[in-house]
Design brief:
- By secondary structure, the protein is mainly α.
- It has 31 helices and 5 strands.
- The chain has helices spanning 2-26, 31-65, 72-83, 85-97, 102-137, 143-153, 160-166, 168-176, 192-196, 198-202, 208-231, 234-245, 249-254, 260-280, 286-299, 307-317, 324-350, 366-372, 383-395, 410-414, 418-421, 430-455, 466-482, 494-519, 522-526, 532-539, 541-550, 582-590, 593-602, 612-621, 628-640; strands at 558-562, 573-575, 607-611, 643-646, 652-656.
- Strands 2-1-3-5-4 form a 5-stranded mixed sheet.
- Strand 4 and strand 5 (652-656) form a beta hairpin.
- Helix 6 packs antiparallel against helix 11, helix 16 (307-317) runs antiparallel to helix 17 and helix 26 crosses helix 27 (541-550).
- It starts with a helix and ends in a 7-residue tail after the last strand.
Length: 663
């Protein structure tokens, strides 16, 4: 027996030692491949650990608050993604306390993972049942899209908003170590997702922020599928999911470190809970409380979620008269109570809970109010402009960001036919509950989007409609399924034809985005043949020039950027120009270039970085806002200041500001 106890460890050591000896000497795999694979594995481990802790936190919250019963697959989604808020709230607390350091974050992540593992020892059966129900419910045609999204997400972050604030904010917190006031409006949006991104950055898993967004996308798709199947049946559920997969922007946006699909998921979670209120009809208000919790998490991501609590209140008022006010009260308390930390943060640090809207706040004045809310869509009251708007929307024509605005033609093809099928769905049963839950939000959020588009060119963004499109998908899935009633008229199999064309559209999206992944050096980066630096040099050369030039400044430099909004990757104290307004605002406040220079120096800035090429593009593209007077003043400014260095292409220039200026 004694000999047998030592034989196994000796055999294991002998085997591993010889394998390492041979592989170490012969090196059958390139070191770059091993490093790349280890990096990707670490990213997945980091995200998997966060999701596991999120599930445990959600499971504990469910037991504490006595959530109402949910279907197994849906229950897993609620537990996991509601529990993920734990990471964000913890990051906010650490930022307020001034404990945002990598050792603290790594230590807390490890402790949370160990704690989750300890809980799983005795309650793993709950997790296995949940995950099994989800895996079994995933339609096969979703799997290629999930694989593609994962491959896209493993690429280095390159999307503009991620480099401007979704990743720049958590990186800035790591650099500062604590939360301090800063005049960057985007840093003060409700920060549920952006603060959660702090953890993968601290753990050296940069792409983890992108993969987390991909998992929120998966959660949203599965929740639509479960909801449509519960209301309309299995075939409409498949068509609803297929409709979402025809959106060309879905795989790409899902793989970015953005917030859009996290918002979509929590909107769906709130609306589904409202559906259960009307469907189950329980009197205890637990589904209303769950809807309020999800609505609060949506309000913790974007201000645009403001339509959700209002629509939820309207939806609950359509229910039982005897308990509707109790449900409304429970719903609103949950929504605003859960969202409160982010709005209290803004009130304390910036003097405005919804900074920078309505009440102004720190670093804000009337010029910035007018700048941020300026118009420009040209819709006005012109009837032809409004009639053309649906076609502009599906074409992403005039959108602020074309790449993530491509929703495809099928929404406009199918939406008009909802009115045709509406009388066939009846006034009771699942359809009635779905209508009461989803359509108040769909109508109100659509109206607010139209109002925003008419008011400001900055709000002409189709991706702001995604929270409307996803809950609308089940109804449109049934529209496709209902085409079978036309089969008797002529010989055209309408449902089969539409289903085939939708499948073809989804296949085109899959092929297009796969080719995009290849063009962005996806295969080479995946196996380590292209480094992160080489990836940026090829695909974002100006961004590389910008970082190289900034890092030529001394470590103690304080840099003010003009016409450059990105901050991610900067290792100096730099204030980016996120609204592209620093120079026009300085001319407004100080009147002359000389006075602006003195004011910047008095504020402690030592260097000025000018994105020359970006300024030139703005002067040519929008001469009504970026005027010739500003252009002449910018030329005078660059002649006035001593040039420290410029980038290799001349697109960026770094200037030295005078010292000893009087405040």
């Amino acid at each position: 027996m004694m000999l047998r106890r030592f034989i196994r460890p000796l055999f294991l050591a002998w085997m591993v030692g010889l394998l390492l000896l041979v592989w170490g000497a012969q090196r059958p795999l390139p070191l770059s491949l091993v490093q790349a694979l280890l990096r990707h594995v670490w990213v997945l481990v980091t995200v998997g650990g966060m999701l596991l802790v999120g599930w445990v936190a959600g499971w504990g919250l469910e037991r504490w608050l006595s959530w109402p019963p949910l279907p197994a697959g849906v229950r897993f989604l609620y537990r996991t993604f509601v529990g993920m808020a734990f990471w964000s709230w913890l990051a906010l607390l650490l930022a307020i306390l001034g404990w945002v350091t990598r050792p603290v974050l790594v230590g807390l992540w490890t402790m949370a993972l160990v704690g989750a593992g300890w809980v799983m020892r005795t309650h793993s059966s709950h997790f296995r049942r949940d995950i099994t129900a989800v895996v079994r419910s995933v339609p096969w045609f979703l799997l290629p899209f999930l694989g593609l999204i994962l491959l896209l997400a493993l690429l280095p972050p390159a999307s503009f908003d991620a480099l401007m604030y979704h990743l720049a904010l958590p990186e800035w917190l790591l650099q500062q170590g604590r939360l301090v006031p800063i005049p960057i409006a985007h840093f003060w949006n409700p920060g549920l997702v952006d603060y959660l991104n702090l953890w993968p950055l601290a753990l050296g898993a940069e792409s983890g922020a992108k993969i987390l967004h991909a998992f929120w996308t998966l959660g949203a798709l599965l929740l639509v599928f479960h909801w449509a199947r519960e209301v309309f049946g299995p075939f409409p559920a498949r068509y609803a999911l297929l409709l979402l997969l025809t959106m060309p922007s879905l795989p790409l946006l899902a793989s970015w470190a953005y917030t859009d699909y996290a918002l979509v998921f929590y909107v769906l979670a709130a609306l589904y809970a409202l559906y259960r209120v009307h469907r189950v009809g329980k009197e205890d208000g637990r589904f209303a409380a769950l809807a309020g919790l999800a609505a609060g998490l949506a309000l913790s991501i974007k201000y645009t979620a403001v339509a959700l609590p209002v629509a939820g209140m309207v939806s609950l008022l359509l229910g039982s008269r005897r308990t509707r006010w109790h449900r409304v009260r429970v719903f609103l308390i949950g929504a605003f109570g859960v969202a409160a930390p982010w709005y209290v943060r803004n009130a304390v640090y910036m003097g405005n809970p919804v900074f920078p809207f309505f009440f102004g706040g720190r670093f804000w004045d009337e010029f910035l109010v007018a700048w941020y809310g300026r118009g420009g869509t040209g819709l006005g009251l012109r009837l032809e402009a409004w009639l053309w708007l649906p076609f502009r929307t599906i074409l992403a024509y005039g959108d602020l960001s074309y790449v993530d605005a491509r929703i495809g033609p099928w929404w406009l093809i199918l939406i008009p036919w909802v009115a045709f099928w509406w009388p066939r769905w009846g006034r009771r049963g699942p359809w009635a509950a779905y209508r009461k839950a989803a359509f108040p939000f769909i109508l109100l959020a659509s109206f607010l989007w139209l109002f925003g588009v008419a008011w400001s060119s900055l709000l002409f963004q189709v991706r702001l409609l995604y929270p409307v499109l996803f809950p609308l998908a089940p109804a449109l899935g049934f529209v496709v399924h209902g085409l079978r009633v036309w089969h008797g008229r002529g010989h055209v199999p309408w449902r089969r034809l539409v289903r085939g064309l939708m499948a073809l559209s989804a296949l085109v999206v899959l092929v297009e985005q796969t080719l995009s992944w290849v063009q962005w050096d996806g295969p080479d980066f995946l196996v380590g043949q292209v480094s992160r630096q080489a990836f940026y040099e090829r695909h974002l050369p100006l961004y590389v020039e910008y970082l190289d030039l900034v890092h030529q400044a001394p470590m103690e430099a304080r840099i003010l950027a003009l016409y450059e909004a990105r901050r991610y990757g900067v290792r100096r104290e730099l204030l980016p120009d996120t609204l592209l307004v620093h120079f026009p605002h300085a001319l407004y406040r100080y009147g002359t270039v000389e006075a602006a220079v003195q004011a910047w120096a008095a504020q402690g800035y030592t260097h000025l970085l000018v994105f020359r090429r970006g300024a030139e593009i703005l002067f040519q593209a929008d001469p009504a806002v970026y005027t010739q007077e500003q252009r002449q003043a910018l030329d005078a400014l660059q002649r006035l200041l001593p040039l420290v260095a410029e980038s290799s292409s001349g697109a960026y220039a770094l200037y030295l500001l005078p010292t000893g200026a009087e405040p």
